[in-house]
Amino acid sequence: MNQQAVTDFTNERQILAKEFKEHSDPFEYLLKHTHAADEAIETICTDNNLSPRIAVVAVGGYGRCELFPFSDLDLLFLLPEDVKDSELKVIEQVLNDLWSLGLTVGHSVRTIDECISQAEEDITAQTAMLESRFLMGDADLYKKYTERMEVQLNFVDFFRAKFIEQQQRHLRFQETTYALEPNIKESPGGLRDLHIVTWILKAAYLDAAKKNKEIPSLLTNYEQTKIHEDMKTLFWLRIHVHLLVNRHEDRLLFEIQESLAKELGFKADADRRASEKLMQQYYAVASSIELLNDVILQALKEHFVSVTKQKGVSIGNGFLVKGDVLDTENENFYQNDPAMLLMPFVLATEHREINKFSTTIHRAYGNLDKRIPDNFASLDEVKSSFLKILKAKKGVYHCLKEMNKLGILSKLIPPFGRIVGQLQHDLFHAYTVDQHTILAISYLRRFTKSENAHEMPLMTELMMSLEDNWRLVAALLFHDIGKGRGGDHSRIGAEEVKIFAKSYNLTPEETDYIEFLVREHLTMSRVAQKQDISDPEVIKKFAEKVVSLDRLTGLYLITVADIRATGPKVWNSWKAKLLEELFYATANFLQGKSLSKTMLVNNRREDVLKAGNFNAKEKEKLEQFWEDFDVGYFMRHSVDNILWQSKELLEHMDRKSSYVIYRPVKGLPNAYEVVVLTEDRNELFARIVSTFQSYRLSILEARIYTGKTGRVLDHFVVIDNNLNSSSEEKFEELKADLINRLDNQLPLQPPIKGRLSRHSKNFPITPEVQLRVDAGGSHYLLSVAATDRLGILATIARVFIEFKINLITARIATLGERIEDVFVIKNPRLADPQFAAEFETALLKILELRPS
Fold first, then answer.
1. What residue stretches are annotated with the ACT domain (predicted)?
2. S-S: 266 plus which of 213, 277, 576, 803, CB 3.0-4.6 Å?
3. What is the mean pLDDT of residues 111-133?
């Protein structure tokens, strides 16, 4: 091995990295880095006496002269048909030496025939040819390779394969440009989207040359300029990421975003972090690339295979429909009348056959800032068209999504521009504010389609029965528009609604309705997940805020859409059940059908006894058991749940020892209900939750009931985090272990220090502890909010033991990666301010996240 070649290459890389940080010219860096690698490879091949009959070819990013600091060195060793074993052994030695350069070496060793055969099976081989670059060896062999591969190339097949490949890649990234940790290379709007365009354009021109055809330029001057600018920005960003983490990393990870932003010169201000400004710039570039990719691929499709070659059917205003494509007879259709800019979207909502716009229309929206007047949003015709789109029966979501992508939505609603590409630093949202907003509208509009009724039938029924349901679309457009400004974003959004409503001449009733939904869009979720919705007083207060069934229905629908659009892991059947129960209870109250606590409890007990077909002796036993517990138990559990518990516990109600039952939770993967029947004792809660943590179970909900005679009935919903073991066997083992630990008073296990997700580490929640005396004056309400982690409840229970706190009831709520727990506790010393302060301080101390 030539150590000098390795040393020279290493030194050159260090020099290039230093120069790049000083001058930040990505094209110069990549070219010089590629050239340095070329020299090192040539030296190593020469020193190993690589046969001159072999052609060494650079492929992939290296072939494109895009060698990033830690990119792979992708090489093709092109062999003669009569290659000798001795020549192959030299290639092995060359590859061993190349790894000493400090980069990953990707390679293939093939004859031309093998390359052709590979290309027939895998389109990637044809892509490799399009970006291949001769390095050394047999130049004639390389020429034969390219000539035969070009003959082999079928443009239509290549286009189709690359298009499908892109679709599959986008699906892997949830088809969003606005992921919170985007991959600069692979995400939609990343470098690969530009590569796809480049490859297909090359293939198109090669195909035309092969057939002696001339094809016009398929890119406008504006598109060529934008491709160059956007590519330069992503090259610049990707080089910086590699150098910052000192490895091959193409993701803009949470943990590097802030340090990267500061290194690149972004500065924080009162409203936004430096990382938010960096990411907003990235999203703008990625969105531009995504749009360029769409337009250019469609232009290619139209030129070679599209129905837009047809004459088309005129639908007025200079527009015509060709198949499912809307086209225009005038490429400057809104130049003299800016209001016409929205006409394609209006037509798309009026004509069911329209699924997409032609390249001509898309290109008309390019460089929009310089094409429309400053008073665009205030033009009456523009406002009339926008309202038509919002009120349309079809295509609303797709139009708004496209309008956001093109930058039109921000022109119509200027405050919306502030949330485009804006990160959300919390543990809930998986998307930027604008993408979350558009996605929420998507979920809402799904409720208008009968084909989706099987998914959420109640939502569909309510949406279809609600008059003027366009008001909900408007509310979702504004529900998060106040984020990033400081203060209550719900109230800021409500104020923006007033401005919009006045400008668009909405009626007072429409304005009031939309403003209410925006101002209160978080209320229903908070009540359902944080308050005891089995309490008639809670329902009464919520109903008094909502006022009408029309408002309740709208709030319910946008709440569900909002939560579902937050992230793929946030919505579940548990939240759906809570919201549905709150909706029905409030609807009954508003319609004068509410029941008192006593009536609710009596009805529930009667329903359980009827459904269970119990005999007289069993009924008497159940009634006696139930008398031990207060109304909370019956109000917080459904008839089905109480019936299950009653049947399973009936034979064990008189026993002094503990008993445990469990069952899977319907509709919530890997979740189980666990009920513990036992006698009250010291450290009981701590023993139960510490046992759960030892089985790697996360507690989603806990309800503690202590009877008048000292009997305890504790109900938990837990998530099994270890999917490698059989859940049935695991829970049988847990059942026996839990009974043993409780009845034999085994020593408490130390709390597990659960690992935090990367998201939690980078967006930690500031712990909050609030202690206040309840209305009766004998108990205290303890509210705790913090970042969730395995074992956190067991850790809290340890503090209870330390301060001799008696737990009466608990309501445990896990919202994404955030816990919001409420405990009813008792200890006479809590009346002492100093003792209470020490207790709260101890809780805050164990809830704080410390670097590991």
1. 673-753, 781-852
2. 277
3. 88
